[in-house]
Amino acid sequence: MHSPVPSHFAHRVAIVTGAGSGIGRATSIALAQAGARVLGVGRRKDALEETAHVHSAITVLPLDICEEGAADTIVGTALDLWGRLDVLVNNAGATAVMPLAETERSVITRLFELNVTAPSMLARAALPHLRDSSGSIVNVSSTYGHRPLPGGAHYAATKSAVEQLTRSWALELASAGVRVNAIAPGPTKTDVLAAAGLPHDAIDEMVSRERDRIPTGRLGDPEDVAHWILRIADPLATHITGQVLTVDGGLELV
Ligand SMILES: NC(=O)c1ccc[n+]([C@@H]2O[C@H](COP(=O)([O-])OP(=O)(O)OC[C@H]3O[C@@H](n4cnc5c(N)ncnc54)[C@H](OP(=O)(O)O)[C@@H]3O)[C@@H](O)[C@H]2O)c1
Asked: What are 89-109's pLDDT values in tens digits?
């Protein structure tokens, strides 16, 4: 268990996508515990409500972030509620197991819509308000944003795109006082593989193979990742931008 970051987020406002589960839920809770007011977004209302149940500073908005106009609705909701925006955590995402021989156009389109296009539109909608607050964007990439993933090339490609967006926006926005960073988790205990439609036995096999390769000997917990999302978004971290921080128990070193 990590202790919450003290008060740097007091009176700050954050948007977290994918707040109903995994890394997004842990991040929403950690931000609220650190003093922020949090708008948690995702499609499943019941899952979001479970997150909101943990802390009264979390308000939820059930919405598909890929829908036309979703970005303006999300940012507008945070502004209507609290009049400002300090942090955008672009966390919602999905993976797909798809070897080249089985590649389908519809899967490529869906992955890029969710992992690249929707976070881009959210960042655009958030930008004027992040300028006003000298705020920051944290994009959630993956260790596979900068390592090859045989059998999952298109997921890896979306996360590579996220890392290039991060670096390019960081340069574009540095003079405006808006910071842009990314956290790249390694294998983390969440529902991401189940959400990709993989059967339980395939997930168990994949997880145990990954665990054997991770130098720290364990998969990450969502709280391990949330911890670093908060630290890189911390309003006092004013001199760090354009960075991709890998949180993977040393996996990419081996
Ligand atoms: N777990 C890992 O091993 C790992 C490793 C590296 C990177 N990541 C990245 O970490 C991020 C979070 O994933 P996770 O591991 O925490 O898995 P997860 O529990 O499956 O979380 C994904 C979240 O995204 C939301 N989401 C999916 N499609 C959406 C849509 N169209 N609109 C709004 N929300 C949507 C889901 O909620 P709804 O279904 O309710 O919409 C869910 O809460 C993802 O970007 C993932 O690629 C995970």
From this structure: 999 999 999 999 999 999 999
Measured between alpha carbons, how far is 174 from 97 in angstroms, rounded to an integer?
36
Q: Which of 92, 86, 89, 73 is nearest to 21 (CA)?
A: 92
pLDDT digits (tens, 9 = 90+) for 170-188: 999 999 999 999 999 999 9
Ligand 1 atom nearest to CA at 22: 16
- Residue 199: both structure tokens together: 């059967």
Burial class (CB in 10 A: 0-12, 13-18, 19+), 75: buried
Kindly state the helix (H) or strand (E) to which residue 129 belongs, with its residue range. helix 118-133
pLDDT tens sequence across 47-73: 999 999 999 999 999 999 999 999 999
131-139 average pLDDT score: 98
- Per-residue DSSP letters for 12-38? -EEEEESTTSHHHHHHHHHHHHTT-EE
SS percent in the chain: helix, strand, coil, step 5: 50, 15, 35
The catalytic residue among 144, 155, 169, 228 is 155
Secondary structure class of 147 (helix, strand, coil): coil
The upper half-sphere exposure of residue 199, i.e. CA atoms within 13 Å in the direction of its Cβ, equals: 2
Which residue puts its alpha carbon closest to atom 8 of ligand 1?
142
Q: Which atom of ligand 1 is nearest to the CA of 23?
A: 16
155 is catalytic: yes
Q: Is the CB of 192 under 6 A from ligand 1?
A: yes
Amino acid identity of 228?
A: W
Q: What is the CA radius of gyration of the chain?
A: 17
